[in-house]
Amino acid sequence: MAAAQFSKDHRKRKRTAALFLLCLWSLISPSCADRLPTSRQRLQVQKHLKRLNKPPLKTIQSSDGDIIDCVHISHQPAFDHPFLKDHKIQARPSYHPDGLFDENKMSTGPKERANSITQLWHMNGKCPEDTIPIRRTKKEDVLRASSVKSFGKKKRRSVPKPRSADPDLINESGHQHAIAYVEGDKYSGAKATINVWEPQILQPNEFSLSQIWVLGGSFGEDLNSIEAGWQVSPDLYGDNNTRLFTYWTSDAYQATGCYNLLCSGFIQVNSEIAMGASISPVSGYRNPQYDISILIWKDPKEGHWWMQFGNDYVLGYWPSFLFSYLADSASMIEWGGEVVNSEPNGQHTTTQMGSGHFPEEGFGKSSYFRNIQVVDSSNNLKSPKGLGTFTEQSNCYDVQTGSNGDWGHYFYYGGPGRNPNCP
């Protein structure tokens, strides 16, 4: 048996050596040189998957094809970070923002009520205590990225910079937005309830998302950003499902940060919600509406940035050392939608934002953010002051704000992309 294995390995090594010599000396086939990096890339992908997919204590198969690994909380990807080797996990925040629990008691009006929401994998099991659910990364996921290094990362220029609707900037970044924002103060967090849809994506390299941005620093090379919301991204996940996501960067999307738990950074403490897993059900046009609440805030005692999903799930935190500006406070908060417009055939994409319908259609048809709030420097949840709006091309995707007793400050946003007024 051992001799047979040796013979097999020997033949394999001889084949590799022969291929290398062919490529090096004969230049017989132009495709020959391309075959060597493929084996190197395969090795890189395997190494990366080993880094990301930690040994599970339990595995749950989701009906959408996802595999959820229940990984011991102390073995999660965050602890690959050299600064977190001896980190003592903080099981819960020292403080929640003041006013949070009063706000949770508020009811939405009978006409405009949305329904509760969960994650698809919950139907097939749950993770034990002291573990966290991690969506398993598959080989195909990594191979869809342009490189192993870029897997799980946003491209640069993907933060909306209000008042910068320069046509050259739109074309260069390929990202379009419809957002509401506040700036000019020191912010310690933000909250919103976000209507969940499943927008249609024209091409696999495009995405559509709806999220909160908590921003610090300038829009140059040193931007700090913490982000959370829902997204449809065929490139990242391999399907068109609507998924919960987070993102962070401390250098304007250059070297640091990633989606979900695809690098070390975010420390998850919750055993029930999986980053990057499908959200179910989603809203339908003139059908029941579903929404999710997201809160991001800075713990005034420890300085870490925490995230809460819904009223019940404190998911975890981004340690303050990951950031420069956000180690102190945020200087801008943004809420809204973002799509990638790759301009197929020189035309605007038909990738939808939100519900794919314009804001003026209203509840049940257009997508919304409601009860939008900021956390001020004294850790109080407050209504945003001086709320502005921004969109690069309002005839493609638009935004309209309002306020009332039940929804506080809110806005409808989104659109279909290409249409007679958006060629």
Task: Describe the fold and architecture.
- Residues 1-6, 16-37, 105-111 and 165-169 have low confidence and may be disordered.
- This protein has a 15-stranded antiparallel beta sheet that branches. Strands 1-2-4 form a three-stranded antiparallel beta sheet, with no helix packed on it.
- 43% of the residues are buried.
- The termini are far apart.
- The radius of gyration is 23 Å and the shape is globular.
- The protein has six helices and 20 strands.
- By secondary structure, it is an alpha+beta fold.
- Strand 1 and strand 2 form a beta hairpin.
- It has helices at residues 2-26, 32-52, 100-105, 139-144, 167-173, 234-237; strands spanning 58-61, 67-72, 118-119, 131-135, 175-195, 208-216, 224-232, 243-249, 258-259, 267-268, 279-280, 291-298, 305-309, 313-318, 330-340, 367-376, 381-382, 388-391, 398-404, 408-414.
Fill in the keyword field for this structure.
423 residues; alpha+beta; 6 helices; 30% strand; disordered N terminus
SSE arrangement, N to C: HHEEHEEHHEEEHEEEEEEEEEEEEE
Number of strands: 20
Low-confidence stretches: 1-6, 16-37, 105-111, 165-169
> Whole-number radius of gyration?
23 Å
Our measurement of the CA-to-CA distance between the termini, rounded to an integer number of angstroms, reads 67 Å
Structural class, by secondary structure, is alpha+beta
**Which range best describes the helical content: under 10%, 10-25%, 25-40%, 40-55%, 55-70% or over 70%?**
10-25%
* Average pLDDT taken over every residue: 88
Q: Which outline best applies?
A: globular
Report strand %: 25-35%
- What is the tally of helical segments? 6
How is the main sheet built?
15 strands, antiparallel
